[in-house]
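Exercise (ungraded).
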Amino acid sequence: MKKKVIIVSFVLIAAFLASVMIGKTFLSFRVLLDMLQGIASSSQVLTLFSFRLPRACLALIAGLAFGFSGFALQGVTRNELADASILGINNGAGLFVIVYLGFYAQGSYLLPLVGVIGGLSAALLVYFIAYKYRQLLSMERVILAGIAVNAGLAAGTLLLTVQLSKDRYSFVTSWLSGAIWGTSWTQIISLLPWVILLAGALFWTVPLLNLLGFGEEQAISLGVSLTRLRTWFLLLAVGLAASTVGFTGNLAFVGLLAPHIAKGIVGKESRTACVLSGMIGSILVLASDTIGRLILTSGEIPAGIIISLVGAPYFLYLLIRQKAQ
Amino acid sequence: MKRFTWLLLFACLLFIGTFFLAITQGAADISLQTIKEAFFGFDYQNQLHQVLRNIRLPRVLASFLVGSCFAVTGAIMQGITKNPLADGGLLGVNSGAAVGLAIAFILFPTIQPSQAALFSFLGAFIATAFLFLLTKYARLGMSPTGLILAGVALSSFFSAISQTLSLQFDLNQDLAFWFIGGAANVTWAQLRFVTPIYVLAILLTLGMGKSLNLLSLGDDTVIALGKHPQGIRGAALLVVVVLAGMAVSLVGPVSFIGLMVPHVTRGLVGKNYQLILPLTIIGGGTLVMAADLVGRLINPPFETPFGAILALIGVPFLLIKIRREQG
């Protein structure tokens, strides 16, 4: 078990380094060492500290947040197809963020909060649509409602953006395809507390997630309120995804893939699996961001697109397997 | 049957009314008198005549055409999959066609309507093939939810591909123009190429009502009656591919029409596809004509894409449907 975690950590470090080194101008390992000693050229220092490093850090944090969020969502819904982007949370946060950026301010400190409000509203909407009086919440209904809310939010975003200027329009389209655009240290600083707080809370309570698997009666006999527990984890999951989405664009499928891979590595739901899920999320986002920069000779492909190219077929595979069982 | 005749009559009246509204209203108001003149005594000097003939008319015709295409595709797919939530847009067929269109843009920078249509047929074909392989491999068959989820994944996969292509080959502007413009950019040249195929495909569709009714009885019954269920499915899918591909090559991928229109017509005339199909054709066309008109009138002289307007109607519709389906 420990060995596997160490291997994943190494992969994460490698992905981070690759993301820092690879780009329009290649920064070799030697240059990085030079920089530590303070003998690199000023243009190299600028590239590293103003562009590469903040972007890699943001990808790292965002991946972690999505990985944790997906882990919690799949745990709560007991459905391996759950993901913040499919449930409409990402698009809800995105709509609010775009309205905020388009009509009010450029300030980034409030952005995570705006995102969380948007994500929560979308989640509540999905919940109320799927909710039926005196019935257990059916996951099938939740997912369908999520898809519908998602489509509505995407249309709403499009309608709004048509009214905006051309720059705004291209910003929104690249946001929707998951381009990591927040690349300044202030943005990272305004995001970091949220992620640390929420991810910490999730990490602390992961053992309770297992209780949800026991079913209603056992949980009641253990003296746990299932509803309260579910609400808690849902809030954490929504908060993690929604606060991040404002800075990274709509990164679909990370929250789907990461927990799967993590559970594939360590077997069952546990703290280790949760942490691994976060780490794998970071690796996915870092790697796809780097690959997106490499493929094109000019310009770059948004990280979200690269992830979708891998994630969508995997999702289909899961879907088929689930039904065949 | 009598009810059907009345409904058909009503649908035709609605269509004619919307048609006249759609060609008269817009950034430039055109009176009925001018329309008569433009048809029977066309004057090259008259700006309104020009607007009517070269801008309004192709646009309105195109929106009717794509509306009926998308609606009928939905009806047929619902018939084949026995899934009331099937729709070309939600299931990824339209975004498959869009990938084909992107490839056509790359290969032929000065693109002809025929090339665009051909490639979008191919794209739609591949997407449909994918979809049916998926339903086949899910051994217990797909639930409505499963199919929709597969559609979501397929369409995000295909749109990732077309976005990558458009970034790589710098097509962003062209494709966005194509898709956002909706029916506004459709030219007579495109319509001239598409119309014969459209008429043929629609006639085929109308002839297929009986076979689709048979499919709902189950494969065993169809075989007992001496027909081939797989053959019927294949033919129906071919029509789906042609209609969806054609519509996408004109206005880009639009969702929800195929979900809403067949559902409403089914509610009106029951489960008989011989009655559903004609009503769906007229209803879908009229709906999109109306949506396009609304898009022009909301914020003139700017245009609001009718796809977005349709989604705003379609989403609540889908939600209600989900609540009903899941009992």
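Further reading is listed at the end of the chapter. For now, observe: DSSP finds 14 helices and no strands in chain B. Chain B touches chain A through 49 residues (CB under 8 Å).
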